[in-house]
Amino acid sequence: MKILLRTWTWQSGGERSSQDRVVEVERLRIGRGTDQDLELADVKISHSHARIVRSGRNVLLVCKPGATALVNSEPARERKLRSGDVIEIGRYRLTISAGAAGADLMIEIEETVTARDEKAARQAKLRTSLDQVLFSRRRISWLLFLLVLLSTLALPAWFRFGAPPAVKAMTSAWPGDRLWMPGSSSPSHAYFKNDCGKCHQQAFVPVRNEACLECHKDVKHHVDDERWAALPAFAQSRCEDCHQEHSSQIALIDKRNFACTDCHANPGARFPGSMLEAISDFSRHHPAFRPRVARYKAATRQFDWIEVSQENPQELYEQTNLKYSHEVHLSPKGVKSPNGLKTMKCADCHEVDSSGISFKPVDMERHCASCHRLDFDPENPSRVVPHGNPAQAVQSIRDYYARAALTGGVKAPDAPAVVQLRRKPGEQLEREQARAALTWADRQSRVVIDEIFDKRICSYCHTVQRTRDPDLPWEILPVNLQERALAHTQFSHDAHKQEKCESCHAARTSKKSDDVLLPDLKRCRDCHGDADSDAKIRSGCTLCHGYHIAQDRLMADSRSGSAAATVSGAKP
Amino acid sequence: MRMHDSNASDTLHESFLSFAGFRYLKLALALCLVCVMTYICARPPASGGTWLGYSLGTIGALLIAWLALLGVRKRSYHATLGTVKGWASAHVYLGLSLVVVATLHCGFHFGWNVHTLAYALMIAVVASGIYGIVAYGRLPAQITGNRAGGTLEAWIEELDDIAERSLKVADQIGPDVHQVLIRSAERVRIGGSLRDQLFGPRMTKAVDRQYEQLRQQLATTLRSKTGRFTSIQMQWQTLSPTEKKPRRVTVNVPDAQSTVMFMADQLSGMDQDARDAEHIRSLLDLLARRHDLVTRINRDIRLHALMQIWLYVHVPLTFALLAALIVHIVSVFLYR
Question: Residue B207's domain spans which residues?
Answer without folding.
Answer: 152-306
